[in-house]
Amino acid sequence: MHAALSGWLVGMLAVGPAAAQTSLPLRLTPRAVPTAAPSSVTVVAIPLDAASRTEAARLAYWAEQSVARSGRLELVRLSEALDAKGKAAREAKAAEGAEAMKEGQRAYDELDTQKALQQFEAAARAFEASDMSRNFGELSRARVMKAASQVANGENAAAQLEIRAVLAVDPRAQFSPNFFPPDEMAFVEKERKAALAGSSGALTVRTEPVPAQVYVDGHFKGVSPVELKGLTAADHFVTVMAPGYVMEQSRAREGDTALTLPPSESVRSLQSISDRVTRKSEELERDVALRELGTLAGVSQVLALLVRGGTGTAPLQVTGLRLEVSDGHNLAYAVGAVPAGEAMATGSDAFLSSLVGTDATRLAGNKPVTHFASEGGSNRKTMGYVMMATGVALLAGGIYFGMEASSKEDDFRRAPQTSARAKDFRDTGKTYALVADIGLLTGLVSAGLGSYFAFSGGGGGGSSSSKSTPAPAPAPRRSRSTPPPAKTEPQKDPLAMPPPPKGTKPMNDSLPMPPPPPASKATSESKPAPESKPAPAAKATPEPKPAPAAPAPEPVVVPAKAADTRRSREDDAAQREEELRKRREEVERQRRELDERRKKEEAEANAKRQRDEEDKRKREDDSKRKDEEKKRPSLDEDDLRNY
Q1: How far is Cα 308 from Cα 162, in angstroms, rounded to an integer?
Q2: pLDDT-based confidence at 36, cuts 50/70/90?
Q3: Rounded to whole angstroms, how far apart are CA atoms 594 and 588?
Q4: Per the confidence metrics, is the pTM higher than 0.85?
Q5: pLDDT tens-digit profile of 393-402?
Q6: Which of 402, 507, 519, 594 has the fewest CB atoms nearer than 10 Å to its CB?
Q7: Distance of CA 484 to CAs 77, 299, 580, Å?
């Protein structure tokens, strides 16, 4: 009995772990490893000069294609991200067309070809109102199935007309023998050959007010203005898009087509960000502006391409970086040359792949990686502010000790001259006067140097890359004023003028008299006027007399430079406001012209519709009158019969 119980207990102890091991995989099998969603990225190409505007838009397209091919990033078109309402409307039409296609296919499979025809017609109309740069293939498929439904309904003539219209726009459209009988397939091949043989049309597409990417029948054809040849004799679908503007679509045949892109709600924000990037293309402000663009577009990464055009057929000089919107970490950075024109499609592949292929690792402590050619500029500004604060403190201290020295002088005059107390007042007054002079002198020098480092226009780039930062400065002026090209050259003068005054004005102002004319604007630097208070102490002790006279020319230089810098900044701000005002007036003028054109077209359409209705009504009245005359018996026969 005891042996049996012992065996049973040992058996249970052995079966327990085995049962647990067999049940363990059953619990772990359904577990699925979550996959991280790809990061969303938008592409922006910013021209640094007017000559590279068209090439920058073309490079942006190829960068979008490189992002799409990488498979590791989710592409968000910048033009769509900045026009959320238009994008939503087009996506709604595309979804409506897809649903109609599904219903039409179901009805066709159930042999309800009449309903299928209606659904395929509705799908074609919906796809025409969607983004034709993406859904042109779906439109062709809907029209092909519409022709198949007409064949099934016995409407062969209508089906052949639809087939001819489809092949005229898309000669490579696919017609399946599962939906078309042999005689219709023969007709398809005949019309296809005729359409390809007659491909001799030419079309020119222009856009205003900016260059735009041009798609014809769903295929990218370049950046406007675009001249196309070898088109079939049909109405082709033209789609144009540019960041900051609403997408425009139209149907065009041979000839010249001009499309005006209405500005979107985010156009001003985009222009402001582009201006900041072009002004500070190698500084921290560049990454700050790009992060604001990513927030505006609602993406997690921004792929920026800063393009400078070469002379003639020279390649473009491109600086590319891909950064995180959250903290500005540069995931990729590259500088190189990219061929312009048609060679850009293949010549830019290696450069763009390096920007989207891999991500750069962060620094120690999870700190972001940045690439600034002039990081020293921010350090100089910080140092300038610190020196200005130190100078103000020294000036305050100098004034305080000057007042104490003046007080000791009064005490010395009141005390007996031979007493030890008078001697103590004299020595203390000398010390306070010396400290006051030194504080005023060093405070003025420190405040002057701090003002130069903090407010000097060329200080930031001169310390790190003096040969690269002056060059981008004229570029933003030209890129902001590209619509009126005449404005590009006068803007070079205010940028080139500040350096000469900085080297010449201090000399001209300091020769006639110590206080310069601009010193009235810099109140903080002009406050050392209380130097006259410690002067009496200096009279009692002749040693400190030369000290206050020496610093007089020093503070003169600083306010003049600060005033010149401030004046140049005010001039730049005034010119920028004037450009923005003229640009707004131009956009408003274009918008008014567009509204007038639309109203005129609507009035003409209404007039034409009324004329057609009147003609139709007259034809119906004539037909009714003729029918009544036919039904009425002949008067001659009745008269003869009665007679």
Answers
A1: 48
A2: low
A3: 10
A4: no
A5: 888 988 988 8
A6: 507
A7: 28, 33, 12
